[in-house]
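Crash report, auto-generated. Payload:
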Amino acid sequence: MTGNRCLGIVLLAAAGALAPGSTALSQARKVPGLVQEGNYAPGNLGMQMQPAPQNNDAGAVYGVGPWPTYTPPLADGDGRELVQSFCGICHSTTYITMQPPLTSATWEAVVNKMIGTFGAPIPEPSAQAILAYLKSHYTPETRKE
Amino acid sequence: MGRLSRRSLLAWLGSGAAGLVFSGQARAQVGPRAATPLPSFTGPGANPYWNGVNPFVSYPQKLPLLRITDRGIQLETPRPYFLSPFTPNAAFYVRYHLELIPNAVDLSTWRLSLEGNVERPLQLGFDELVKNFKAVSVAAVNQCSGNSRSRFQPRVPGAQWGNGAMGNARWTGVRLRELLASAGIKSGTVQLQFQGLDRGPGPEGKGADAVMKSLDLTDPALDDALVAYLMNDEPLPMLNGFPIRLVVPGKFGVYWIKHLTWIRALTSEDTNYWMATAYRIPDTARGNTTPADAAAGKLKTVPIGHVRMPVRSFIVVPDGSSKLPSGLPVRVQGIAFSGDGPVVKVEFSENDGRSWVEARLGADHGPYSFRTWEHTWRPSRAGKHVIAVRATDGRGNVQPDAPVWNPGGYLWNRVERQALIVGAG
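Recovered output after restart:
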């Protein structure tokens, strides 16, 4: 290794661009200002496969694949299954977890809107249990997650 | 850095090494990888972040966007995509009300219907729309009525958008007025009702089976309205309304019906849920009211289509995700728009809004488009700084520095701020 090439690698290290496997070199030299290097965190890369190109169908139908869904973890407690089954008729329960903590009065208005305005087919006892669940886990006083 | 001369600094800035530093700073929030992830929800205080706190997700025809909800689908555009005046289709936000969203459309059987109080009901195929009518283009911002709803205090239910429920595109299609003329709107028509292919599983007539929006036949916004089949010179992504959507420059996105399939001439005012109950604002200055007045139920309300989108401006970079190196000029960049005339001025404040200097405006793409702006800021000291931006539109409307509140979470347009840390040299 010539002196010039060595200098080049040190400059790259200072810019944070040095490839893995370089620790021996950096340990061998003092690098001004370097505070941390080679910090790799274990865990997945968030990898997703790339979509394949569309097939050769030249017909008039234009489409895409299915819309992905997600079942958010809801707080453990009485009424959770009723929430998942009744609220889930028309929408995913991310509609609940996405909200800020809402007051009991607001949850009451929301449940009444779903039933009265939108016509959600929820029997009265189940509606009361759903409301009790939301008040127990998703108000400013009660929300944990 | 301290020993570099100005000349060698410039040479260094021009090299790849500078790219590492600056792209790291400007794009730190582009990808989903974070040293410390955001919390999973905010509240009961206001959401302090530019976007909502939701995770990145992948959808067909889309870059990773921020999930609000997955059924129906609501996706927010991440902040860095607003560096350019036109929002990429693959990054454009998505907002549906109901869950039955088309996955596939057969253009051989799909028709756009013009019906109701018309001389000649029309059933137009996609190729007829494209071939038989003159194509026109307009650059226009589509913004959700509830963009920035997560800023409201007290918080209100609804999609908890940060600032990313907006986008700007060059829309190309047919003038709505030309289509109306070919169908012949009969006298006695008061409103036009628009409906798309997307539906819901709810019982008929209650709002959860279909979304319909109507505009007054005399509304001047209809003169600029298009039925668009191109978005940024490409077909519309399915989630943005393929094959066509209504474009109503200046008005909120709820009127820009996706998968537009029915246009109806109505002889009386539309009383469906989406006009009579939803998307209504207090008939007050800025649509502002108080929780007490709203709870008392005495508010006079009007459809949000009665107003144009108020003037807004945004800081896109720097985004506060990284410390700014001491001694360097900071290129502050952002966008501004108004539904009520072009943006004529954008002002920058380095001191939390106490004093303002005029920023430089980017290219003019028309009165309904995003207008980019930038300002070179030279922070005088290390420590915390709060910068701010405000815009003025052609009607002299200046962005106010006061919050707004209404039960729907609509019409937020307060002055935007960004806290920044300048590090020591």
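Post-recovery validation: Chain B has two domains: 7-37+307-425, 112-278.
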